């Protein structure tokens, strides 16, 4: 909701006051073993020492069915006006980040998130890709995990303003 509120304040959430276009529903409870468990070298010798997987209630966001317009019948689907770019948190449907954004913004999103490569390469790919060249979105939501902004190594190879580079160079490691 914070993203929606910020976008609304800037005039970028133009469809939030229209009739609901998306709905989020809970699914049956399930178990999930997070990817960090792979760093615990306990299996196959000591499986009883492994932490239990987490239980959670997954949710799914879907578009609300509406009567088809003449444009839709002719195959004239509009390109989403909001893009989301991010990491596995956004790309993995398990967390429904894009679904929540679609529901709160009340419009579909174009998703350019990627798993396993951090937040910066997906944004670079998006900005230099054919979709961005042919259709500039009204807004881009960029999901960046805080830890990605904390260290110099996270920014290696990314062109930064000299003032920021100088500031980063002056930071002493703990």
Write a compact overview of the structure shown.
The protein has 174 residues and is an alpha/beta fold.
Description of the structure:
The two termini are 35 Å apart. The radius of gyration is 20 Å and the shape is flat. The protein has a 3-stranded parallel β-sheet, sandwiched between helices. A two-stranded antiparallel sheet has the order 1-4. Strands 2-3 form a two-stranded antiparallel ribbon. The relative contact order is 0.15. It has 174 residues and is an alpha/beta fold. The protein contains 7 helices and 7 strands; from the N terminus they run H-E-E-E-E-H-E-H-H-E-H-H-E-H.
Overview features:
single chain; 174 residues; alpha/beta; three-stranded parallel beta sheet; two-stranded antiparallel ribbon
What order do the helices and strands come in, and which of them pair?
Blueprint: H1 2-9, E1 22-26, E2 30-32, E3 54-56, E4 59-63, H2 70-73, E5 82-85, H3 88-91, H4 97-105, E6 109-111, H5 120-128, H6 130-134, E7 139-142, H7 162-169
Parallel strand pairs: 5-6, 5-7
Antiparallel strand pairs: 1-4, 2-3
Structure annotation, total helices: 7
Query: Taking all residues together, what is the mean pLDDT?
Result: 84
Sketch the major β-sheet.
3 strands, parallel
Q: H/E order of the elements?
A: HEEEEHEHHEHHEH
Overall body shape: flat
How widely separated are the two ends?
A: 35 Å
Record the strand order, biggest sheet: 6-5-7
- Strand percentage: 15-25%
Binned, the helix content reads 25-40%
Structural class: alpha/beta
Radius of gyration: 20 Å
- Number of β-strand runs: 7
Return residue spans where pLDDT drops below 50 for at least 5 consecutive residues.
Answer: none
């Amino acid at each position: 909701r914070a993203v929606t509120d910020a976008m609304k304040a800037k005039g970028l959430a133009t469809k939030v006051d229209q009739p609901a276009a998306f709905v989020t529903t809970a699914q049956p409870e399930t178990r999930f073993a997070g990817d960090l468990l792979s760093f615990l070298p306990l299996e196959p010798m000591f499986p009883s020492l492994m932490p239990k997987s987490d239980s959670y209630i997954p949710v799914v966001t879907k578009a609300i069915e509406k009567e088809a317009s003449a444009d839709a019948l002719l195959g004239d689907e509009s390109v989403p006006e909001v893009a989301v770019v991010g990491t596995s948190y956004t790309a993995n449907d398990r967390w429904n980040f894009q679904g929540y954004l679609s529901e709160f913004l009340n419009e579909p999103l174009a998703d350019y998130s990627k798993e396993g490569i951090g937040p910066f390469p997906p944004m670079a790919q998006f900005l230099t890709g054919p979709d961005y060249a042919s259709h500039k979105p009204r807004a881009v939501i960029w999901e960046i995990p805080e830890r990605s902004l904390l260290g110099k190594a996270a920014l290696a190879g990314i062109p930064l303003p000299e003032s920021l580079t100088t500031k980063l160079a002056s930071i002493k490691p703990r």
